[in-house]
Amino acid sequence: MRPHRLRITAFGSFPGEEEVDFDALSEAGLFLIHGPTGAGKTTVLDALCYALYGQVPGQRNSARSLRCDHAPPARGPSVVLEVTIRGRLFRITRSPAWQRPKQRGTGTTEEKAKVIVEELQASGEWIGLTTRADEAGELVSGLLGMNAAQFCQVAMLPQGEFARFLRADGEERRKVLERLFSVKIYAAAESWLADRRTEAFRDQQALRREVDSVVNRIEEAAGLDLLAALAAVLEAPSPPGDDDSDPGLFPLPGAEPGTDPAPGGTVPVEGSAAGTAEPGGTAPGPGTAGPEGARSRPEGSAGAVSAEDDPLGWADALVTLAGEAAAAVAGEEIEAAVLEARRRLEDGVALADRRRRHAEALTRSRALEERAEERADLEAILAEAARADRVLPLIQEAGQRAETAAKTRNLAADARSRALPLLRGAAPAAGGEDRVAGPGRPAGPGRGPDGALGSAEERSVGPDLLAALERDRRDEITRLGELRAEETRLGEILRERVLEEQEITRRTVEQAGVETRLEILPALRDGLDARLTSARLDAARLPAAEAARETAAARLRAVENRDRLAADLDAARRELTERLSVLEQGRAPQNPATDAAGPEGRGPDAPGEGTGDREAAGSRDSGALRDAAELREGIEGWDPDVPGDVAELREALGSRERERRDALAGLEGLRADEARLAELDAELAVLDADLHGLTEQEAALAGAQRELPAALAEASARLAAVRAEAAGIPAAQAAADAAAVVLESARRRDALRADLEAARAARSGAVDRAQDLRDRLQHIRQARIDGMAAELAAGLVPGEACAVCGSPDHPAPASPAEAAPTADDERAAQSDYDAATDRRQAAESAVAALASQLDEAVAVAGDLAAPEAGEALDAARGELAALLSAAEAEPGLAADLDRAAAELEAVKGRAGEIDRRLAEGQARRIGARAEQARLESRLDEARGADPTVRARRDRLAAEAAALALALAAAARVEEISALHREAATRHGIDRDTIGRGPADEPVGGDESLGGDEPAAGDAQGEPRALSAVRAAEDLREAERILDGLREAAGAVPALETELGGLVAELKDLQERSRGLAVDLSARRANVERLTAEADRTAARLDAARGEDPTLAARLERLADEAELLREAAEAARQERAAAAELEAALARAGAAAAEAGFLGVEDARAAVRPAAEQADKAERLRALDRERAAVDAQLADPELIAAAAEPEPDLAALEAARDAADTAHAAFLSTRNRAEGRRDRLAALRAELAGCLGRWRPAAERHRLADRLAALTSGNSSDNRWSMRLSSYVLGERLRQVVDSANERLDHMSGGRYLLEHDLRRAAGDRSRSGGGLGLRVLDGWTGVDRDPATLSGGEGFITSLALALGLADVVTAEAGGVELGTLFVDEGFGTLDEDTLDGVLDILDGLRDGGRAVGIVSHVGELRTRIPAQLQIRKERHGSSIRQ
């Protein structure tokens, strides 16, 4: 990779466009990039790196903007690099993101980052390759074989970072090396192994929990009795030939060590007691111990069997014991006894039922005989009700007609009362008849004094009169409806007249306004005409006024420029005079801090300065005076008003300034010696303090070494005590679990007792229900047998043979009883009985199951109350909690012990380190004293007459600066004087002969002369200079005149428009006045016509409405009266029809009652009975008949007759015998079921345990292997000697290669004194357990002792860091595929080197040029500028930096 040309625009500290020609710099092989601090030397390297990778090195890449703040707002940042990579010439153009001004409006918008990569073809044409940032980065990284971090470390050698790399601990050094060398595959292997270890641990823990869960379930399923039996078997003496070793079983929950869980030598089966005889003389489980008893050792249980050591063997032993216990349970005699007891009880219950039924039949027969009279009454009532039901419809019809007649009569009366006012006002009809009374009646009789109708006459008003009155009103409504249109027309006429009158009033007012406006318009028109003529004349004078204003403005600007230059000239002359006065004093300004510090900057009271030193200082002061006298030569007697004197003065000042600069360049080389001497003073002081501090630390560590072993022993004793307490946790946990089981069993026992009582009650109810249904079935079956003759007779067919006797004749077939049961009834009763039997058996099974569960709970909990069991559980848990609490302190105590041990080891390590550092410090102090003497001798020769080299350099720098300031002031006086002479002759401002008054302010004169006094040449008629005040007044006057003319000219269009509007308005108003007069005349005539028509129409309407307020009101009143009359006539007609229908219905009902045998309608109505009452009485009659038939059938039943003759059975004794047998049978079933269930459950759990163990053991082995490998690769394993991670091991080999390459250069640069060593041990500051493999030590060839890099001085650290950086560059280059870097850059750090060491470093850098490689040094050390001719200078200015090549 070789860069050719770099162009920088608005980037970093460069506001403009700068170009760097690397080809010209690389011709010399070694070139220097120098400039002041902050000028932008590193920015050149940043631009190069940004062009290649799109980012800048280090923390600067995190800056929000890379654009130069001094650049113009519209100039965007960019870098263009022409570079050759692997024989291909590229041109890369990049522009970072920046905020550019918006094209429209104000503010800024973000311009995104851009890139263009081009390649030069053989034809000489640039061909674009890509404009994507990612593709450009991949292209450059692929060709170079390095990423951005590697390129910055290899091609730019940042010394600050390598100094940190040299002094870093192992972890920080590893992070740097990981950025340069890819160890992802090894780090991924570490991470993968750690993940596999975690995953394997989780898997084996989950599988182990499954094993533990199955073991716990086996213990729960086995129960305390079986666990105790197993313990007793294992504790019994082994037969000859068996293994006599300790069984090693864990203690059983709830059993104390050494106790026998089954007293008496028996192993009771859960739910039974040893030695208790069951009905039938059999025991429910294995009995006493013997060769075949429970103490016989189960198959496969020889030797020690433990759930912890051999879970499968332990489970097999439990399965064997459970199988033996289940096989020992037998109960055939119990089952036979319970069946016999149940049969006897059923027979006794059946006999008692038959006796009860026979007695009940006799009682019912006597009761039926007593109810014979009730039966006769029911038959009579039902017959009379049947006859009344035939007459009831006619009676109900007559009642309905009566209701209808009453309703119509009330409606007719109401309608007559509402129409009464109309009837009273009706006039008699023609012929002497009254319309109210009807035809043929006189008009007068029956009326009151006022002609009103009486009450009798109101009732006699007929529907015909009402209809006639209705027709009269309808006719009048029709006649008045024809006049409604006239009423509407009258309203329209009145509204039209009002509108016309309003319009007449409005137009009259409008005509008055028009006449008033016509009177004033002519005067307004004449005034506007005069104003328009004046404005047009002002517009014609505008060009001349604008020219006069421009001339006045130009003269004012010329006067202001002349006066400003005159003031600047005076200031420049004063500044030059001040600068020269400083030089004429013979001594340049000194640095107060330097004068106060004295020689070597040590201060006036520094030790070692005696009388001889003060005499030397006096001689040096006399030399300084001689130099000041030489400085004054050539600058005295000059005249600032004479241009030739100013030029000669500038030449003399320039000569003196160059002489001082040349002298300063010679003294710059000694700055490093002065800095080194000061460093040695400080270093010696620090060394003395360090040695004193190390001595004190050594004494303190000795005391700590004596005290720490006792503390370590104490911590170990506390940890052992806590671990002893934690060992009791398993037993406490087992006791707590056993107490929890007892508490649960006690609670379950109490609940089961209540459930058992309820189940027994339900069983009793089920037994009673089954017995009732059995009786019902037998009753139905007997009834069907009794009525079998009638059932057979129903199937007889005339002419066919009888199925019983075979005769074809059937003279008297039997008739079925009224409620004879059928075959379906018998089958339904049988089904009900079977279901009840099933429910009874289910209830008995439930009682047996609950009793079995209760026995199990009692076997576990005994008679212990639940609160007492809870208290025992709380006590066990409290003891467990106390042990767990004590065990929680174990990790902390272990950590304390580890810390104490680590502290002891650390104290021992620090003691050895302090011994080594004491030896190194004493050796360094001796070397520093010798170097201090050499430097003091060299500086005494260099400072000459001055007290110190620094004082001499400061004096020469101050004199050079003063000369430079005086030289700049002289140049400024010369420049401003020429500009002032040119400005004074512009626009004739100093040759004004127009005679407009005296000047206000002479050029360069005193302001106290005032503006009203004439200038010196006015009396003789000489030209006067134009003042700024007069020029400003002339400009204001011209602008005032111009503004007035513009205002007048601008009013011309408005005046023309206004005048035209007035003329048009005058013409329109005249036309409008004439139109208004004509319109008013026509409207007044129309109002008169409308008034006459309205009067005529109103007269006709008044005559038609009579006394009503309006015609509409009269029509509404007539319509209401007509409707009332219509309703009254209709009601009268309905009243007559309803009366006739009522009379006919009453006649029909009376005839029907007489025909049915009743005395009348009321007699028939009294005999009527409701249908429900009739049905109830009929059902009572049928029930009496059914009861008689059933009683007769029961009394004839032979079984009932035979049962009545037998004695009464003892049911209580039979039930007691049955209950005793059921209890014995239930206990037997419970014992057998629990034993078989436990056996099957243990067998299933044993199979599950085998599966869990088969899955857990491989997982545990996988976790062990993964744990070892992960610990080995992470550096935490004891097998890893150096505690190195796998990635650190790989990086350690890379670091060793870097050290080998660095030592080739470090040996030369240090004069054979120093070499780097790769240390596999952890660094002193490392605290991690895996920080080894990346340590660095410095071997001192003079002492033969290896040193920590932190003990190197500044210069030693620089050359060591440089050698390390160059070595790392070689290794990274080789790692990247051997890519050749044509140009390298070394950034800063040379200021800490002495002359000899600098020569060695430059020799090494010069050697890097082999093969045509160019090396660029970035530094501001002055001596390098004399040694390296090829230079790139960075200049820093107020408005940004620039590059000079």
Automatic annotation (TrEMBL):
InterPro entries: P-loop_NTPase, Rad50/SbcC_AAA. One of its GO terms (molecular function) is ATP hydrolysis activity. Signal peptide: none annotated. Residues 270-281 have a biased composition (Low complexity). Keywords: Coiled coil. Residues 670-714, 1028-1145 form a coiled coil. Residues 5-183 form the Rad50/SbcC-type AAA domain. Residues 237-308, 425-461, 580-623, 808-840, 987-1026 are annotated as: Disordered. Residues 441-451 have a biased composition (Gly residues). This is Nuclease SbcCD subunit C.
